[in-house]
Amino acid sequence: MSELFQMWMLVEVLGLLCLPLTFTVFRNLPDRGWAFSKVLGVIILAFCVWILLMCLHSLPYSQIFIFGIFLILAACSGFAFLSLWQEMLQLARRHLLYIVSSEVVFLGMMVLLGILRSLKPDIYNFEMFMDAGFVASIMRSSHFPPNDMWFAGHSINYYYYAHYTIATLAKLIGQSASIAFNTGICFFYGLTALNLFGVTCNIIAWSRQRTQRAGDDAVNEKSSLKATLPYGLLSIFLALIVGNLAATQQWWDHHAEAGFTFNWFTPSRVIDGTINEFPAFSFLLSCFHAHVLTLAFTIFCIGLALNWFLEPAGKGFALFGTGWSRYLNLLVTAIVLGGLFVMNGWDYPTYMGLTLVAIGIQQGLAHRPWLRFSTLLHVALVAISLVGLSYYLYLPFYLNFVSPSQGIGIASPTNHSTISSEILIYGLFIFMFLSLLVCSALLRPFHTSTPAPSLPDSPVYPVVDRPSNPGPAVSSGLMFETGPYMEHILQNNEEHLLETPSVQVAVAEQEEKGETEQVPAQRLSRRWFRLLWLGIALFLVSCLVVLYLFPYYTTCVAGLSLALLGVSLLFYQLENRAHAFTLFLGAAAFTIIAGCEIFFLKDIFSGGTAQRMNTLFKFYFQAWALLSICSGAGLYFIIESLHTLKVRTRKARWILSGVVGAWSLGLVLLVLASMTYPLLAPYTRYWRIDDTHAQPYLLNTQTLDGMAYLAHCQPPVCDYDTSADYQAIRWLNTHVSGDPVIVEANGDDYHYGGRVSAFTGLPTLINWPGHEFQWRVNWLNNPQNQDDFHKRSEDLDKIYTASSSMEVLSIMDYYDAQYIYVGAFEHKKYPDADLKRFGKFMQTVYHEHGVVIYKVE
Questions:
Q1: Structural domain boundaries of the chain?
Q2: Hey, which of 371, 448, 695, 730 has its CA 20 to 30 A from 526?
Q3: Cα separation of 591 and 597, whole Å?
Q4: Distance (Å, whole) CA 649 – CA 841
Q5: 3-state secondary structure 687-712
Q6: pLDDT one-digit tens code per residue, 826-842
Q7: Peptide bond preceding 20 in cis form (omega within 30 of 0)
Q8: DSSP line for 732-795
Q9: In degrees to the nearest 10, what's the CA dihedral of 324, 328, 330, 336?
């Protein structure tokens, strides 16, 4: 477990070094991005190392090189600390409990998964060989782009950047790939939890500060974040702990049967022909796939979108600040969003789209009225700049990548999800979002009791909205707020500002007209409220027509209905941007769910009943994350709306109490039902030992080395005694430097073939051909590439079976292979071949326990 704390300490240092940058970027959030400093530090280090390696191929991917980049970033951070340390210290003192809580969340969640992984850390089953191989091959690569361990001579044609990120951290602190696999998944678990915590707490803290200002109350910034801690923890609980209701259904249907054992795997396969993973399942599995590793970064993108959504007055590129900070903030945003595609291409359109829509709404609020040419122009320029920059910053990846995507398809009428299946997956979230919609409709948008005075235009005292930091004007009773570039002026010149004649006149006029000006605002609110419900009624009627004509689109219509209701109420609650953003996340999630009923991304599975398998797999995972934050923050707004409801009669109070009680009971029952998975699944995944649900080689050494199980694995769990392989692989990792090609037997996917290349990172001719075909399906459209692909398997067989040494050496030379591995798996696959003959014309460099490794002289 000491390796886990090494990884934790490294990320803590990166987080501290990145604090000045987060303070600059996240100027609109109450915590100034404190919770996001770790993920941003990791992103900046990884990008700086990667872009240099991809542009200057002569640079070595080594520990010394990474450490040099680390020192340069540390020096830059040190200069930034000189100008910001007082501000950061002040924030730390003001929000000490929040900061301590965030640290406990990060470390606690890392340790929680670390304990589970230490019980069974083995890299075995499923696609773990593939993911471990990516990490090992990246760490083995002397130069970039990194080698494909199962297709020698070519780089990885997959979304490898998240694997690269953990490989870089592990290389910096000297961890092996088999250990980094486990410390990495624990790190991503803790980082995801921390980011969820930060996003939710900032949403609610901003709303609390805004409400206090709107009510003429003194803003207590110290308590604004402190009061949000339960909701931040709730978002973590909903995103990473609870399971779906399919697990509850399994237990309910079978728990009374004799010998019943909970199947921890089947709740991830609810809809036929698809995969419906959720984070609790994925992390319990320790799935090291791109969609799981990228989850922390997608949550971070939500926080970034929130930051720009809350920007009060920035028009066009002024959204990103003024002076040099404008370019820095734009660059950081592009690096973060652009990195999503090279981590997991499925996430890029969702979170780039979410960010651009958030910026579009912000620009509309900044310009007012919305439908202006200047507004549309500014939105277009910002969007083009972000998308273009996010592409060009990662251009070296695209130049070495052939996308496996084959376009967009329309789902067949018989291949749709039922409402019952959606409830089994998202039942708790549907309940929470419906509750939020109702309460948002009942909660009247707040208006300031004293509307903002219309101060005369002045180059000295510009008035802009600044929700997250109250200026002295607020404390003096004036309901307007300051921008970041004016705070230092107003903080030192409050009395002077109040003595300004133009301001005194404006305040006096406002006091006289305060009550009368509230009436038009109330009338506008009522008018908007009537139009809202009229539009909803018309939409529901159109939904009934669509359902009558196309009954198989029930889930699509339901999802779009919830999404459009969320969007309608978003604009209704736009005075409180935090509330509106919460609705925005829920609407985005149900738009994704509805979209999956119409469209799917074509891949090699598109021809049959599994055409939507990967589409639902990747996009439902995104919807779960969005709904977790929406529900965690949404509970705050639900409670807030209930507190504001006013009833005048005793009967109405009794009715209200009954409704609230029934709602609370329903929520509690759904939460308890969703707890079935975290209560039962870990037991059957890690601790229950029988022939069906667990492996008898469960380790008690509390190690995080994912390769250690090979030293003990015996049939029937393993195909053969793997202890000899374990010793040989360790020898290769110790004595073979660089990335020479090694020859090992080709096995089927999900099998022991490729175990040497996976655990050493040394490239081999071909292995797991089914996966290589998936990754290179469009690359294989070239007949020459297709011939090369199929020829590799034939050449591999010839190396092990050909009687001519010249033929063997010729094939070895063609692929620049230097080593041949002969172990139990090779003997099993080629039982009639003379595998000892290699010693006659090659050097024997290793011969222990039945494994022989030969090297070309």
A1: 419-448+504-674, 708-855
A2: 371
A3: 10
A4: 98
A5: HCCCCCCCCCCCCCCCCCCCCHHHHC
A6: 999 999 999 999 999 99
A7: no
A8: HHHH--S--EEE-----TTSSTTHHHHHH----S---HHHHHHHTTTGGGSHHHHHHHHHHHHH
A9: 180
Instruction: Tokens 């959204």: give the residue.
Output: 319
- Phi, psi at residue 818, to the nearest 5°? -115, -25
Taking the CA of residue 557 as centre, how many other CA atoms within 13 Å lie in the half-sphere pointing to its CB?
Answer: 16
User: What is the C-alpha separation between 191 and 37, in angstroms, rounded?
Assistant: 11
pLDDT tens digits, residue range 761-771?
999 999 999 99
Q: What angle do CA 223, 228, 232 make, to 5 degrees?
A: 150
Q: Residue 716 CB: number of other CB atoms within 10 A? A: 8
Average pLDDT of the residues in 710-724:
87
Least confident of 22-31, 104-113, 472-481, 655-664: 472-481
Average pLDDT, the chain: 86
Tally Cβ neighbours within 10 Å of residue 829: 15
List b or e across 635-655, with b for residues whose CB sees 16 or more CB atoms inside 10 angstroms: bbbbebbeeeeeeeeeeeeee
Residue 775: CB atoms within 10 Å = 22
281: amino acid identity, one letter: F
Res 650: pLDDT: 84
What is d(CA 757, CA 771) in angstroms, rounded to the nearest whole number? 15
pLDDT at 465: 39
Main-chain dihedrals φ then ψ at residue 216, nearest 5 degrees: 65, 20
Contact 92, 32 (CB under 8 A): no
Q: What is the pLDDT of residue 461?
A: 33
CA distance 383 to 386: 5
**Greater model confidence, 483 or 15:** 15
Strand-pairing partners, residue 741, are: 817
Backbone angles phi, psi at 655, to 5 degrees: -65, -45
Type of residue numbered 93: R
Domain formed by 708-855, architecture? 3-Layer(aba) Sandwich (3.40)
pLDDT band at 589 (very low <50, low <70, confident <90, very high): very high
Residue 235 neighbours by CB under 8 Å, 6+ apart = 196, 197, 199, 200, 628, 629, 631, 632, 633
Q: Which of 430, 432, 450 has the alpha carbon at shortest distance from 440?
A: 432
For 624-674, the pLDDT digits (tens) are 999 999 999 999 999 998 888 777 788 888 988 899 999 999 999 999 999
Three-state DSSP at 486 gives: coil
CA angle 361–363–364, rounded 5-degree value: 65
For the segment 115-146, what is each residue's pLDDT rounded down to a tens digit?
999 888 989 888 999 999 999 999 999 999 99
pLDDT of residue 214: 65
Of all residues in the chain, what percent are helix, strand and coil, respectively (each to 5)?
65, 5, 30
**What CA–CA distance (Å, rounded) separates 65 from 2?**
25
- Rounded-to-10 torsion of CA 344, 350, 356, 360: -170
User: What CA–CA distance (Å, rounded) separates 461 from 849?
Assistant: 82
The pair of structure tokens assigned to 261 is 């054992």
Cα(242)–Cα(191) distance, integer angstroms: 18
CB 15 within 8 A of CB 36: no
Element (H, E) at 2: helix 2-17
Asked if residue 369 has a cis previous peptide bond (ω within 30° of 0), the answer is yes
